[in-house]
Structures are given as C-alpha cells and as structure tokens.
Amino acid sequence: MIEIEHSRNAELITLRASGTLTKAEYDLAVPEIENAMVLAKGPLKMLVRLEDFQGWEVDALWEDLKFERHHRRDLGPVAVVGDTKFEEWGTWLSSLFSKPEIRYFKSEDQARDWLMST
Fold first, then answer.
1. Would you list the domain boundaries of the chain?
2. Can you tell me the distance from the alpha carbon of 91 to that of 97, in angstroms, rounded to the nearest whole number?
3. Predicted local confidence at residue 74, as pLDDT
4. Nearest Cα to Cα of residue 53 among 92, 24, 15
5. What is residue 49's predicted lDDT score, i.e. its pLDDT?
6. Is the predicted pLDDT of residue 81 greater than 90, yes or no?
7. Residue 70: how many CA atoms within 13 Å on its side-chain side?
8. How many CA atoms lie within 13 A of 14 on its CB side?
9. Taking the C-alpha atoms of 25, 2, 43 and 96 in order, what is their torsion angle to the nearest 10 degrees?
10. What 8-state DSSP symbol labels residue 77?
C-alpha cells in the first residue's frame, strides 16, 4: 500500500509504503506525485517511509523505473527511512542508478533534517 502525505511546504511529500507494492497501487499514486511536482517551486523532495515493506511486484518496479527516468529533472533528494538491512541495501542499490540523491536513514527526524538542509 502507498499513502501520500503533503506537507505545508509544497516542496516535500512523504510516501508511506508497506507490504508488496502492486502496479495498481503505483498507478493510483503517480498522478498525485506528478501533481505535487507541479506545485513544488523546484525539484520535489521525497521522504519515503518503509513500514513492513516486502518489495515490488515486477510490473510495479518497472513502472517505478520508468517514472524516475521520465521525471529525473523534477525530483529532488529522496530520503528513505526503514529498519532492515534489506531496505538499506535496496536504497543503496537504487542510488547507483538514480539521478536524484537517495540516502537511507533509520530515523524520520534525521531524514527530514537532511531533506530540509538540501
């Protein structure tokens, strides 16, 4: 499941991802993320909170890769918050192929502080 929270600061959104993400869930979230990109004054910063995250279905992962490629200039830094080595490793692996800077944190406060300083 994907839940999106908008902050008063239009430059930041928080995505909460849990379970196994499906293409249908991703397709529902994309228009809201794209709208947030339009409202942002610059590249959109994202805080991704992984909660009992199990990964993506193959179709959802493919959509995620296409989305990032299409919107690479619209995305700012991404802070990923999780609590497992799998999540930390996945974030590191994603950072190798991503234009926006992606960092992993164990604390949401640390992640927000980093995003606000960039």
1. 2-117
2. 10
3. 85
4. 15
5. 96
6. yes
7. 10
8. 14
9. -90
10. E
Asked whether the beta carbons of 46 and 79 are under 8 A apart, the reply is: yes
Sort 93 into a burial class: Cβ within 10 Å, 0-12 / 13-18 / 19+. Answer: exposed
Is residue 41 scored above 90 in pLDDT?
no
And the tokens for 93? 């692996």
All residues at 6 or more sequence positions from 37 whose CB lies less than 8 Å from its CB, including other chains: 44, 71, 74, 75
Beta bridge partners of residue 2, listed in sequence order: 17
Mean pLDDT of all residues in 34-59: 90
Report, as an integer, the average pLDDT of 51-80: 86
- Going by their DSSP bridges, the two strands 44-56 and 12-21 should be labelled as parallel
Residue 111 has pLDDT above 90, yes or no: yes
pLDDT value at residue 34: 92
CATH number assigned to the domain with residue range 2-117, chosen from the 4 options 3.30.360.10, 3.40.50.10600, 3.40.50.2000, 3.40.50.300: 3.40.50.10600
- Cβ atoms < 10 Å from Cβ of 115: 21
